[in-house]
Structures are given as structure tokens and as C-alpha cells.
Input
Amino acid sequence: MLAVRQALRELRRRRVRSALTTGGIAIGVAALVLLGALSEKMSRLVEGGRDFATGQVTVSGAGTGALSGMTRGGLLTAEQLRALETIDGVAAVAPIVMFPAADAPAALPLTLAPLVFGVDMEALALNRRSPRPRVSAGRLVPAPASDEAVLGNQVARLYHVGPGDPITVRGKRFRVVGVLEPTLTGPDSFVFMSFPTAQRLLIDSEPLLRRLLLVPGSNLLPIATAAAVFWASGQDPEALAARIRERLPGLSVVSPRDASIQLDRALAFLNAVIVGSGLVALLVASLAVTNTMFMAVVERRREIGLRRVVGATRRQVIAQLLVEAATLGILGSTLGLGAGALGVSGLNTLTERLGAATFLLTPRLAAAAALLPAGLAAIAGLWPAWRAARLPPTEAIRYA
Output
């Protein structure tokens, strides 16, 4: 505590310089908090998608790339869905209809626009990695082929609706029977319907599909934008995915391992860009600490020399200057963390009105923002402190 009090006293002696350095650190920390919170939200979103995709083999229509086939591209026909059920090792096939709830794109980048998700909700329990959704109000399963819908938490907040309220999706009126608990992942942006209901809504929204179904003798139903294939107990999902590719070569098949690799690669690149930008801002602030400590050493050569003459060791001199540098970092990180937290709260309040919260301040991010600047500041002050400790005691006579 004595070292900290001495450090604060020295920093007060140079109020303007200390305030500017602390402010620079605070700006860097605030930038790290904001960009880190954006990265944390994206990580949580991708982790939820990974859990869902790695608990099943995802099959989509020809010409669709990887997991993008869930929401666009070729459709799976009734014949293809039936063929999937006959492949060895398949325990169940859950057809999925997934498409945007409106033609308008997401109001914000890095967020999901509301999506219609038509599936047998009971079939989701077969997924071996993704937890079963839970409702905060109402019930989980809409009645088959009905006008009932279950909303993700963010969709319910966006449209200000709850169980019993009506909601219009692509010109059709539905009745909300349940609202999911917040997951901070994809389901928050989903409008869940029974598969037959979502299939009919997709057909009504696509003129080409309607014309195809009107062709005499047409037997296209059911159709799906994707299918979740669940493997039987004891089966290897990668081997099952290989058998599906062999039996149905025209389809896009994503095994659990494929999904994990694709999502992890995308997340790593995105996080590197976002968090890297925040770290650059923090490193620039650390350079300000180095400059401040160099100036302090130059101005205090007389004092340092006198301390050495009266018996202070080099280790004591280095320790005192490092405590001063770390104190600058702690003060800056405290201010920056507070400013960043206020920024996250304010921006989330704004973005929620436009569609979805974009930032997520987690305990690990808060801990990093609180501790990392102090460590970087101490490291930044190490060179000036080492230079000061090497000052010969005779220099005290020279600067006296």
C-alpha cells in the first residue's frame, strides 16, 4: 500500500501528463470492450450454430454451399427425403423449411433478420449436441398445420408480442402461442412453425413453386430447404455422411466435423479482425505510458540518484517506477471499462429497437479489460525503470 500511495503522489505532481496518459489508456480499453463485446456476441451466435450443426448431419439441395443451404439454394424433394430415410445408419430425418420472415435484409450488420423455421419441434430433441429449446411463456410446440407460431425472444421483443397476440409473417396472420427463453444464439431470431405450416407459407411466397405444384401429376410435396439427419446409436456420423454422399451425389452434405471446421474458421477470422483492432488501440495507449515514464525518469534523475546514494537498490527503484506505470494502467482500465460498459448498454438499447442486441459484455471480457491494461502498462514502464535503475549514484551530485 505504501508503494501505491507513493505512486499516486508522484502522479499527482504531474496532473496534466498523468491525466492525458490515463485518458489514452481509457480510450484504448473502451475500444477493446466495445470490439470485444461485438466479438463475444458473434462467438455466442456461432457456438449455438455449431452445437446445432454438430448434433446432426445437415443435408441441403444441389448447388448450395455448406450450411448456407439451410436458407437458400436448391430444395430437397419428397423423393430425396424418402431416400435419406432408407440409408443404413439413419435413425430419423427431420425436414426443415427455413427462409427469411420478410424480404427486407437485417437492419444491422452481423445480426440475423427474423427467419421462419419450420420443423417438427419434437424432432429437435434427437439432436445430440443442441439443448432442447425452452419457453419463457406459453408452450413450445405449435399445433401441426395450424396458424400457431412460437417466437424467439428477440423476435417477440422486436414486434412487442407475446402468447395470444397476432403476428403477420409474409402477409399471413399467425397466433403466438409461446416465446422462447433468451439463448443469445440463432433461435432468438426464429419464428418457429410446424413443418406443414412453414411449407405452405414458403409455397405461397414463391410463385414458381406454386406453378410447379399446379402441374398435372405433380408429386413434389413434401419439400424442404434442408434436412436434419440423425444417426442411430453406435453409428459413426462421418461414415453416415459419406454413405449419403455416395447414395445421393447431387446433394450438399455437411457432417458434424465439416460444420465444426467451417464455423470455427469463420469465427477465428472474424475474431482476429475485431479483437485485433481493439488490441492495437490498447498497445498504442501503452506507448503513451512508455513516453510518460521516460519523461518522469528524466525529470527525476536527481531524486533517483539521491535515493541510490542513501541506499536504495536497483530493484527498489525499478519496483517503484513499475508501480507508478501499473497505477496508470489500473486508473485507465477502470475508466475505460466503465465507459465501455456504458457504451455497450447504450448501443444495445439502440440496436434492439432495430432488430437485435449486437454486443455482449461477458465476465471474461470484463476481467481482461480490467487486468490486461495494468500488465501492459507495467511492461511499458519496464524499460524506463531499468534505465533509471542503472543511473550511477554519482549522478546525484551532478544534478543536485
